[in-house]
């Protein structure tokens, strides 16, 4: 199971056998069922989660209890309330499993130790966080300036493996519309 995360790191950096062993020792395997909450406000996010299999969702609940889906993490992706994890502050976002999932998790202390002992991991996470920031900027711009059908097509491009795995209400929430409106948009596109 740790081979997946080692392969992920090796996409961007070279690792020695000793470094691979250190990574394997630092990440703990966790199997979780569908709809399990991993991070919940106002708790502090204790772990960064790497998805071996399954899918996670990050969302915000507004004062009316309306869910606003921010992102998904399918196999090979990372997810946590990053601000909470890195700053040790109360979380603002929920992280929940959409499907039964297998994860590798690391605490902040273990994460910091890995960055200290394997300096090249700083490069990996810099690339990861840069891509995340760019992705969030693009998503924000899309929500503010594009029609729903275009947002949906971009969702399909970004998450091609998720369309049939996610409940429709989650995709609608991600697109910023009601499930009923999303259903109409989806029907229009499929024609």
UniProtKB/TrEMBL annotation:
Domain annotation Cyclic nucleotide-binding: ranges: 30-116
Gene3D superfamilies per the UniProt record, alphabetical: Jelly Rolls
Domain of life of the organism encoding this protein: Bacteria
InterPro entries: cNMP-bd_dom, cNMP-bd_dom_sf, RmlC-like_jellyroll
Signal sequence residues: none
The name this protein goes by in its record: Crp/Fnr family transcriptional regulator
Taxonomic classification: Bacteria, Pseudomonadati, Bacteroidota, Chitinophagia, Chitinophagales
């Amino acid at each position: 199971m740790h081979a997946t995360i080692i392969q992920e790191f090796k996409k961007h950096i070279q690792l020695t056998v000793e470094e691979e062993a250190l990574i394997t020792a630092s990440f703990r395997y966790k199997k979780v069922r569908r709809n399990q909450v991993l991070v919940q406000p106002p708790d502090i996010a204790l772990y960064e989660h790497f998805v071996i299999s399954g899918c996670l969702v990050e969302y915000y609940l507004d004062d009316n209890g309306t869910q606003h889906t921010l992102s998904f993490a399918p196999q090979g992706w990372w997810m946590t309330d990053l601000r909470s994890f890195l700053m040790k502050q109360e979380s603002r976002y929920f992280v929940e499993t959409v499907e039964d999932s297998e994860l590798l998790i690391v605490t902040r202390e273990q994460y910091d130790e890995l960055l200290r002992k394997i300096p090249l991991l700083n490069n990996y996470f810099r690339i990861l966080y840069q891509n995340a920031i760019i992705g969030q900027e693009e998503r924000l711009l899309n929500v503010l300036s594009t029609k729903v059908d275009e947002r949906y097509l971009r969702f399909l491009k970004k998450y091609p493996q998720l369309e049939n795995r996610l409940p429709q209400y989650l995709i609608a929430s991600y697109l910023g519309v009601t499930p009923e409106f999303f259903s109409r948009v989806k029907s229009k596109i499929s024609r």
